[in-house]
């Protein structure tokens, strides 16, 4: 059966709520002091895009939703893995207390940068492909949605940079005298998260559901 390009009127409030949820949860990320809570709210924000795209019920929307679900599944998992590496060494998730870790773990700081850029949907990751499909679908459904999705994208970039700067830049706290070094298994774990995100762009049909 063909997909209905015009969802019933009953679905309009749900789509609006999903779009409003993107702005609300993205804004909540900007005031988080707990690292894991910030990452969790980030996931909710991205799933608002997915929910809106699924409800619109167009081929582009479903393709974008499938792609973004796979992409964010890897990205969010990588962010939680990075947060856990910080917690195992500092025993705190408070952003004000885990600053300046770039000085102690320069390679891990590179993983933080790459993962946050992926969370912002920077090319050449499939996150960008998924978001473009969804934003185009919603714009085609209703032109004003570009304002909400554009603001959501801007706030996502803001809190991703905020998360990176708060954890990596600045002066390291004096309470952390001896920090255990990172392990090969942790770097392998992050490689296995981020490598597919970069490689799948060469054959996105593997995850797009086409």
UniProtKB/TrEMBL annotation:
It is a multi-pass membrane protein. It comes from the Eukaryota. One of its GO terms (biological process) is ATP synthesis coupled electron transport. GO terms for molecular function: NADH dehydrogenase (ubiquinone) activity; NADH dehydrogenase activity; ubiquinone binding. The chain crosses the membrane at residues 12-30, 37-56, 62-83, 95-114, 146-167. It is an enzyme of class 7 (translocase). It holds the Pfam family Proton_antipo_M. It catalyses: a ubiquinone + NADH + 5 H(+)(in) = a ubiquinol + NAD(+) + 4 H(+)(out). Its main location: mitochondrion. InterPro entries: NADH_UbQ_OxRdtase (IPR003918), ND/Mrp_TM (IPR001750). Belongs to the complex I subunit 4 family. Core subunit of the mitochondrial membrane respiratory chain NADH dehydrogenase (Complex I) that is believed to belong to the minimal assembly required for catalysis. Complex I functions in the transfer of electrons from NADH to the respiratory chain. The immediate electron acceptor for the enzyme is believed to be ubiquinone. This is NADH-ubiquinone oxidoreductase chain 4. It comes from Podarcis bocagei.
């Amino acid at each position: 059966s063909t997909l209905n390009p015009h969802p019933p009127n009953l679905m309009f409030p749900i789509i609006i709520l999903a779009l409003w949820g993107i702005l609300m949860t993205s804004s909540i990320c900007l005031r988080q002091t707990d690292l894991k809570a910030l990452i969790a709210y980030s996931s909710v924000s991205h799933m608002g895009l997915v929910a809106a795209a699924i409800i619109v019920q167009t081929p582009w929307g479903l393709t974008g939703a499938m792609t973004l679900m796979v992409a964010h599944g890897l990205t969010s998992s990588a962010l939680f893995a990075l947060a856990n590496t910080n917690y195992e060494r500092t025993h705190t998730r408070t952003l004000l207390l885990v600053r300046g870790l770039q000085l102690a773990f320069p390679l891990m700081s590179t993983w933080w940068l790459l993962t946050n850029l992926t969370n912002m949907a920077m090319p050449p990751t499939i996150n960008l492909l998924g978001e473009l499909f969804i934003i185009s679908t919603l714009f085609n459904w209703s032109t004003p949605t570009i304002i909400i999705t554009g603001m959501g994208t801007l706030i996502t970039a803001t809190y991703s940079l905020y998360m990176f700067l708060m954890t990596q830049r600045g002066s390291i706290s004096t309470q952390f005298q001896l920090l255990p070094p990172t392990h090969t298994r942790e770097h392998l774990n992050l490689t296995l998260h981020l490598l597919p995100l970069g490689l799948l762009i060469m054959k996105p049909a593997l995850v797009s559901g086409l």
